Amino acid sequence: MLLIRCPWCGPRNEVEFSYGGAADVVYPPDPDALSDAEWGEYVFVRDNPRGPFAERWVHTAGCRRWFRAVRNTVTHEFREES
Amino acid sequence: MTDDLMRSPLAGVTFTAPFVRELPFLAMVNLRVGTFPHPLPGPNRVGTLDGRDVLWLGPDEWLVVGPPGDAPAIETLLHQALGDTHGSVVDVSANRTTLAVSGPHARDTLAKGCPLDLHPSVFGPGHCAQTLLARAQVVLRQVDADPTYHVLVRGSFAPYLAEWLADATREFW
Ligand SMILES: [Zn+2]
């Protein structure tokens, strides 16, 4: 069981949350200018680091707000970050 | 308003455990606002506003709860308080019904299906939280130190949760 800190509700059990994938993925400023390969890269390709990883989470069963968190993919330790 | 046409999602359900009952048709009005002229409760807490209970739901969201039939009066109260301030006031009374679980076995019963720490040192009277109970989304609040809890659950989940409670309470009476 992971104890995840919602920035609004405080620490809650992981079952209250849903995962939103990597954070900080910037929408292309001009999508029409992208090749299929570049669009595919934007949509599907993500880093898969060993260690700290910035992620999006949503407190589905709580306040229903999205937030950003940094999780260590080795230890599952969450680091507080907004 | 309560009238003969109103029917609780738990109408006809018999609560086998003597310490579980339904409080049907409570008035519930959702308030979303940035700044409000009256003090509103902070995270995971219940406050009061003109005799009604105010439950914190999120950073800009509260649920005002009153007796059955009180929703129009609550709406008027909130609209007047808002004045020209931008905000949202919605009567959501029909969204949820309320289950009261009280007495010495209430905490152990709810702890079977709730991921919150309900120990009195962590969660006490005046506390509330949106969480899960037996995998159903609920608003849970502790009303007094008996302890009495109120479980606000959506109508479509209420019969399921009532059955779950019947099973979870079976060992206690
Ligand atoms: Zn939250």
Continuous helix count of chain B: 3
Q: Write down the secondary-structure element order of chain B.
A: EEEEEHEEHEEEH
Q: How would a crystallographer describe the biggest sheet of chain B?
A: 5 strands, antiparallel
Rg of chain B to the nearest angstrom?
A: 16 Å
Radius of gyration of chain A: 15 Å
Extract low-pLDDT stretches of chain A. none
Most extensive chain contact? A-B, 12 and 13 residues
| Share of β-strand residues of chain B | 35-45%
Main sheet: strands, sense, barrel of chain A = 4 strands, antiparallel
Query: What is the percent of helical residues of chain A?
Result: 10-25%
Distance between the termini of chain B: 36 Å
Level of helix content of chain B? 10-25%
- Beta-sheet strand percentage of chain A? 35-45%
Low-confidence stretches of chain B: none
Mean pLDDT of chain A: 94
Secondary-structure element sequence of chain A?
EEEHEEE
The molecules bound to the chains, other than polymers, are:
zinc ion
Q: Tell me the number of strands of chain A.
A: 6
